[in-house]
Amino acid sequence: MQEGDLYSDFNKSNPNKFRDIQELLADHKSLFRWFSEEVVLDVGCGPGDVTRHVLYPWLPENANKTVLGVDVSPVMKDLGNKKFGHPDVFFETFDVSGKNLAVITEDEKFRDGFTKIFSFHVFHWINDLELAFQNVYKLLKPSGQVLLTFPISRQYQRLYKQMQEKEPWSTILKGAHREIPNYFLNGDATTEFLSIVTKVGFKVVTCKLITTHDEFPSIEALKKLVGSLDIHFNRIPTSMRGQYLEECIEIMRKKNLKELDNGTVVVTEKRITAFMEK
Ligand SMILES: C[S@@+](CC[C@H](N)C(=O)[O-])C[C@H]1O[C@@H](n2cnc3c(N)ncnc32)[C@H](O)[C@@H]1O
């Protein structure tokens, strides 16, 4: 996702997005052990609005908190610092499935690792899940805790691939690389997930596969999400973006999108939510 502004725009226009993450945090509150010093990582923080306005205010008031939001997309660091900066909240560019942890650990605030690691709607973008979880494990302090959630169906990645197969998009997006990671394609997603994270060393406290019905206030709000998640969206001429998004919605209508009489749009997904410890 490169279009950080578009994505935070989407988050603003869709109050359900913040509410879903607030509910996820509330549902797991009793499992957390808090310390007087909390060093917190938000993996795949996007533009930083969730890190700053959902995660940070949720952390215990009486702890000393340092929060780092990281994202593979370099535009997010600047966006986060510019729009969602705070004396306790920092942003950095970091690939959780990369080989370079130094970009985090060379900062003395984060050298000793994190007491808590969160990640919301990110791991379905990752091609090497085992490496990503190894990194999360390394970055976590002993007794540290992880809460994450991500959809397994990869419906948006599939959608963009399908769009790229037809004109005029195949010409406009010629050579654009779109990879759908090779996980959770068949069989039991929970078993596959558990086998990866337990191999890495995590103790899994809870792991659920749930069907969610993501609500968008309007088709326009859903289009904002569809545009912001597409890493090649900026290659589409501005004058054709409306048509591109309309065709995306047409494809979704044939799959898992329902439009209610009041204009609300519901998209059905399957999502893994896990709480794990080191
Ligand atoms: C759907 S957005 C979620 C943003 C934010 N967590 C939220 O819930 O609003 C997914 C984010 O994951 C980031 N991402 C994808 N692959 C990543 C990777 N390998 N390392 C770090 N971030 C990644 C994307 O750039 C994008 O900003």
From TrEMBL:
It comes from Bemisia tabaci. InterPro entries: SAM-dependent_MTases_sf. It holds the Pfam family Methyltransf_23. This is Juvenile hormone acid methyltransferase. It comes from the Eukaryota.
